[in-house]
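If your schedule permits, I should be very grateful for your opinion on a structural question. Kindly check, if you would, that the fold set down in the tokens agrees with what the sequence suggests. Thank you for your consideration; the sequence and its tokens are set out here:
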Amino acid sequence: MLSSVGSNGSIYSDTSRTLAERASTLVLDVLGTLYEELTNIAISRIDDVNHPAQVTDRIEDLRASITSVKITGTVEEAAEGTRASEGSRSGELTVAADPQLKLAIGKRTSAGETVSRRSSGTEQVHLDFGNISTSLRGLLQVLGLRRLWLMIDEWSEIPVQLQPYLADLLRRTVLPVPEVTVKIAAIEHRTEFAILKDKGEYIGVELGADMSADLNLDHYLVFDNNQTKATNFFKTLLFKHYAISENALPEIKSGDDLIQAIFTQTPAFEEFVRAVEGVPRDALNLAAAIATKAFGEKVSINHVRAAALEWYHQDKSAVIKNSPELFKALNFIIDEIIGNRRARAFLFPSNTRHELIEKLFDARLLHVLKRSVSSRDEPGARYDVYKIDYGCYVELINTSKAPLALFEADDELVEVPRDDYRSIRRAILRPEELDKIISVEA
């Protein structure tokens, strides 16, 4: 997880530091974390390889490649020593007569002087991406690893300005290694993989060329997108957590067994899946809240709704209580979409990034159902489909103000829109409607 990389994550967001300093610190922290993990893998496998000494050498090569230093700047380095010189002259004269006469003349001299050397500069880590990539590949080959999965979570926790530089590091060091597969989990509207420059040059990763973005978890986890896949996922999620608990019963061997034992009927579990809105973390928290509501009874739809309402007020809505702007924006959307249109979802222009929509999405009060859908009345116009969180309308269910369907179509309310959402017209929410909220608050 990138949120746990480095000794002080606040450095990355410290705008008093230069962009270069923040980016280099991030890159070095990530490389250091990667080095530590690979060292642990090497230690665990060193007894199984044919040449353990080579493993040590390759680990040292990798360490050296990410810690090489060069000096350019204001750090002073001084070295002092003594240089000595010595010389001698001598002569000898012998007269071969008896008695023999021998005359020797000699001169010896010595001198010494102190020598000092001084250099100045800034000590910086110098990274050779090619050397890092070569060292990494050499280590994997010595360890006999056919495939290394590098799973990067919480990419969007990194400041947007720094993300392209981290992506560039991956492109130049990790992606060229055939044995490594990289997976990145990121939030689309809070992610920037590349900085485009002149003449086709760029810093970072080019989606579609260097890497592909082909999996949107909302398509699998949100109930209104795909009921079968969503229910199967959360059924498995609950069972895996249950199976490792101390009180797990041996007769419950699958997710289906667990759901039958816990819920009164299938629609009650489907209501649970609808309520968590595709967020696994919320599923576990809501399951705990439901357990306190049911307390020994099988879980019914009423238990799910009561727990979801309580969870909504304690967790999700609490996020925006200190922001009058967000609070007013959410209430406006609820009044307009649910109150006036009796629907649970709306369309918003794809090419528009609105601060209020993004903040409500981050707070898990809005959820993306689909990106870039077409419009029949506006050729070329594309929209993103947002769904209002279950907690926003759960207390309206079984009342006269309850939403009646997902969308309001041309002449009717529809749960699954026909013709790829092109029949939806009145469901569009315009950015200028939200702009009025900001202008009033200002």
Notes: The two ends are 38 Å apart (CA to CA). The CA atoms of residues 195 and 203 lie 5 Å apart. The first helix runs from residue 10 to 13. The longest strand covers residues 69-95.
